[in-house]
Amino acid sequence: MKIQEKPDYLIFADSAKKGEVNDFPDVSRGWGITIEQTGSKPPMEWMNGAFNRIDKNMLYLLQQGVPEWSELVTYPVNAIIKYNGVLYTAIVENDNAKPSTETGKWATIIDDKYLPVKKIANESYETNSDLNFKKRPRLNDSDMIAMSDFYLQSGNVGFEVSPTGVIRQWMLVVLNEVGESLAQEIGNITYYTKYYSIVLPVSFLRAAYNAQVTVACGTMSNQGGMATLSASANITDSLSRVTVAVTSYDPRVRPALYLTAIGE
Q1: Positions in the chain short of pLDDT 50
Q2: Which of 91, 109, 172, 253 is most buried by its number of CB atoms within 10 A?
Q3: Largest Cα–Cα distance in the chain?
């Protein structure tokens, strides 16, 4: 079906002269009333009144955006109405059920906190990170989330838990010396490799997906050793530990590593 153009918002017979518009005498009966009263010939005043009524009803809906609740209307499931500045949707078919009290028949869509009855010009409506919903709004069949839904412990050692249960954690750790373990000579240079088992800030509950490690510099004095140091992280069967392999030609270096891990 073709998308219609924007209406002109004009009201039929809105500028009619006095006496040219009369309310239609029996809206429910319709034109049949003319059989009994005007010989089946509706007068101009009735015609103007009928079309005037239609245009005013349509303009009301265009102005409101969402119609106001009426005790005279039977609402189907998923109907949307407005009552005292709050949007509601029908949970079940109902009639004459006041949305503010009949919570088994209506559910709020947007609370009056976010939909003021009167819009204030140049006013900004903001919320902070500690947002508490009376009933959580939904978008695309999913609950909207707020910053307060995330659990966060920050610092050099920390973790973040998302509303979906994904845990991202990190830590800055300075390890013991590599020492002369697992020596291997490459190009007349002896390299040493040591494996470290690092305990994570928190244990994953279900699964560990990925771990990454980056070489850092703990102090200025060990930058030289760090320049030729490499490290790799490996997720094992443990939900609380990560195995890190460090390789260096200097057995005295104390690796400073930044470790991140993701899981659930």
Answers
A1: 112-130, 218, 220, 223, 225
A2: 253
A3: 117
